[in-house]
Amino acid sequence: MTALPAVACGSSTKPSPTESPTAPTTTSAAAASASETPVKAEDELEVGGSVASVSGTRVEVSSPQGSASVAFSESTKVMELTPVTIAEITPGLCVTIRPASGAEGGTVVADAVVVGANSGGECKKTNAQDNAGLPRSPLGGFRGTVDSVTGTTIALTTYGADGSTTNTTVETNDLTLFADRHRVQTDAIVEGKCIIARGNKDTGGVLQVDTINLPLVVNGACPMPKAG
User: Fold this and answer.
1) 221 with 31: CB under 8 angstroms?
2) What H or E segment, with its residue span, contains residue 212?
3) What is the C-alpha separation between 207 and 198, in angstroms, rounded?
4) Distance, CA of 68 to CA of 50 (rounded, Å)
5) What are phi and psi of 13, to 5 degrees?
6) Given a cut of 70, is residue 73 above it in pLDDT?
7) Rounded to whole angstroms, how far apart are CA atoms 116 and 137?
8) Rounded distance, CA 56 to CA 9, Å?
């Protein structure tokens, strides 16, 4: 079996609910999520695909590009995405927006809207690109608080660490993914689910991961990390 290539993740200056034995499915153009995504260290690697098997703390990951071995521990952070609808996006929620076009501070068309505060329970912007648990996007992602929802339009305010605020109009459509990202136990990692894992390889070539994301199936396939 061909080894699955790991994608190196250098630091970036770009802008930044129930367990199932198989991955939830969506037809959106991209899946996403919303907890704080820290800046990646230069030597960190990222692999993605579907869970082929789990044995103890060892996960075999498969994708069209090959296979990879991933090992987790009790300290590994595991986050999972589950689908929601726009009707569940209500004022006061903290969400991450993954733009398909546009930019924060103006009008954006959302590729994904994902519910979830950061690890500290806050809804502030970070210095890192908010990837919402998915492979990095050229347009990045940003977190904010929902002010109102009118039809398919979301009014959003983002809060900077310095106390500044930015207002953004978020347009959604039939291709927009709506999801909830939440922390789960390691027993949520089961065969058939999509996985994106980040960490460092040991001397045996096994990726020792500090973060695992379990994203949604997108158009019949698991989202894959891209070089960037």
Assistant:
1) no
2) strand 207-214
3) 8
4) 10
5) -100, 5
6) yes
7) 19
8) 27
Helix (H, G, I), strand (E, B) or coil at 165: strand
User: What single letter denotes the amino acid at residue 219?
Assistant: N
Return phi, psi of residue 86, to 5°.
-65, -25
Grouping H, G, I as helix, E, B as strand and the rest as coil, residue 112 is: strand
Closest by CA position to 207, among listed 57, 63, 79, 81: 57
Strand 107-115 vs strand 58-63: parallel, antiparallel, or unpaired?
unpaired
Sorting pLDDT into bands at 50, 70 and 90, what band is 65?
confident
Side chain identity, residue 176: T
Task: Answer left, alpha or beta for residue 210, where phi above 0 means left and psi between -120 and 50 means alpha.
Answer: alpha
pTM reported for the whole predicted model: 0.74
What is the torsional sign of CA 20, 129, 137, 89?
A: positive
Distance CA 46, CA 59 (A): 14
Compute φ and ψ for 185, nearest 5 degrees.
-80, 165
Q: Indicate the residue type of 34.
A: A
Contacts of 182 (CB under 8 A, 6+ apart): 17, 79, 80, 82, 116
Nearest Cα neighbor of 31 from 193, 169, 228 is 193
Length of the chain: 228
Tokens (6 digits) for 150: 């009118």
Please check whether residue 206 is in contact with residue 69, taking contact to mean a CB–CB distance below 8 angstroms. yes
What b-and-e string marks burial along 176-186, b requiring 16 or more CB atoms within 10 Å of the CB? Answer: bbbbbbeebee
The band of 170, judged by pLDDT with boundaries at 50, 70 and 90, is: very high
